Fold this protein.
Amino acid sequence: MKNVSFRNDVLPLKDVLYRLALRITLRHEDAEDIVQDTLMKVWNKRDDWENLESIEAYSLTVCRHLALDRIKRKDRQNESLDDIHLNHTAGQVNPYEQMLQRDRLELVKRIVNALPEKQRTCMQLRDFEGKSYKEISAVMGISEDQVKINIFRARQAVKQKYQQLETS
C-alpha cells in the first residue's frame, strides 16, 4: 500500500478499534487505553506502511493482540458488556415492552460474552463491524474457512442458548 496517511487512513479507524477492544476487554477504560496504544504502535511503524497490504487489517490485528494481552495480564473472566444502551424508537413508549427488550438484550449479551474468544471476536468483526471474511482472516491470523466455521458455531450457540433460556 502506498501513500498511507495517518490522519486520513488510520485515525478514522479509532471507533472500529474501540468497539473491537471493548468487545474483547468488556471495559470502557481498557478499550480506550488499548485504542491509544494501538494508534501509537501503528504510528511508530509508519516507515513500514508502504509494505502493508492493508493498514486497517494491521491496525485491527495490533488492537486485538493488545486487548488479549490486557486480559491475560488482568487474569479475569469476561462476564458482560458494560454500559451498552438500547436504542429505543420514538414510537415505543410501553414500559413493559422496553423492559422485555432490555432483558432480551442483556440475555443475548451474556450469551455472546460466554462464547470462546475466537468465536466472539469473529462474530464481532463480521456481524457488528461488517468486515469481510478475508479481512477477519487477516486480523485473526486464521484461514477464511476457520473464520466461517467460528462465525457459524457462534451464531448456532447463541441461537440455541437463547431458545433454551427463553423457553425455561
Observations:
- Residues 84 and 119 are 20 Å apart (CA to CA).
- Helices lie at 6-10, 14-25, 28-44, 55-74, 95-113, 117-128, 133-140, 144-167.
- The radius of gyration is 18 Å.
- The chain has eight helices and no strands.
